[in-house]
Amino acid sequence: MENENHSPDIRNIVILTPNTVKYALSVLQEREVALKNLKENACFQSLEKMAKPFDLTIGLEKNALSLKFDSVEEGIQEIVNLPLRSLKSFIKDYFLIVESYEQAKHAGGARLESIDMARRGVHNEAAEFLRESLARRLKMDAATARDLFTLICVLHIGQVRGPHI
After folding, report:
1. Is the peptide bond before 53 cis (omega within 30 degrees of 0)?
2. Among 89, 97, 106, 125, which is most buried by a count of CB atoms within 10 Å?
3. Angle between helices 142-161 and 111-134 in degrees, nearest 10
4. What is the pLDDT of residue 98?
5. Which pLDDT score is estimated for 164?
């Protein structure tokens, strides 16, 4: 729930994706929801020293997640990197479950609910792992970590599956 006195931490978010990637509509929708959530509700407690709002650039560089925070008013920059190999099994499991979910959605049936619960479970586990892995450098709440994991998966799709997703 958003606090009325809360001013957004993030003014603008840039995701560094290859221009050649054409995402499926469902991926674009997930990306837009995550971006909207981050812009409106992101909570990075460890960046309290930086004047808000700040711009956030998210990308993959040398097999690592790169989060670059630029203070709009002060010109201060904070860069946080995390090797993707630590998230690889979560990303792989998440993609497999999403694929199963899409197949079950078209086939119908009772499996859809259990697959969706598994998808949310992996998403939550990955978000918690992300929070723990970055805790020394970047503290965030659970919802922010979930949205970041969504965007990591969007970025990773372009790396793994190429131009047509």
Report:
1. yes
2. 97
3. 100
4. 83
5. 35
Average confidence (pLDDT) over 4-30? 79
Question: Are the C-beta atoms of 149 and 123 separated by less than 8 Å?
Answer: yes
Angle between helices 88-107 and 142-161 (to 10 degrees): 80
- Per-residue pLDDT for 128 more than 60? yes
